[in-house]
Model the fold of this input.
Amino acid sequence: MQFRILAILQIPARRMRLSLVGLVLILAACEAPSLPEPIPPLTYDHLPPIALNVAQIEVIEEYAPTLRSPNVEHLFPTSPARAIRQWAKDRLRAVGETGTARFIIQDARVVETKLEKAKGLRGAFTKEQSERYDGRLQVTLEIRSERGFRDAFATGQADHSNTAIEGISLEDRERLFHAMTAALVDAATVELEKNIEQFLRDYLP
Done:
């Protein structure tokens, strides 16, 4: 027993310090929590631009968020209204000399509904869907003449719902919200593009 103690005491001080530093670094690496991956921004400049024979483009928000329950779109990493504004900025191009295209955001709400849990033993020992989120996005792209008359318009609308499981983490809820915004914009703009081809054909170069 004495020999073993003496052997440990005879380890050079420098090597002992290096060993302790290495041990601390290993323990720190094991204990450090992994950081969540950042949620990517929603942008649409990778999609083909939509050129319109007008002199200017205006984005108008008619929808005013309530900023209170049961509406929750203001809690989203990117709200549907903000995402559809970005869509208009990234894709709509004015290439004409007269007239105005007005991109109007008429609805961009998401409403939360609390869901009832099962009672008794089943409710105590199972995780269930605890909230439902119902979103709606509605936009209109209209062409206004120099005199201010509406000459033509095309609309796009989408409804999308999702549920969250009981005890969902903040990170997972934000990713659910992010996915809802992306789904609403994608669905609404698919309909809008189809209607642009049909009803705004005279204003496409």
Q: What stands out?
A: The beta strands are 50-52, 56-61, 92-94, 100-114, 129-144, 150-165. The radius of gyration is 28 Å. The first strand starts at residue 50 and ends at 52. The chain has one domain: 33-203.
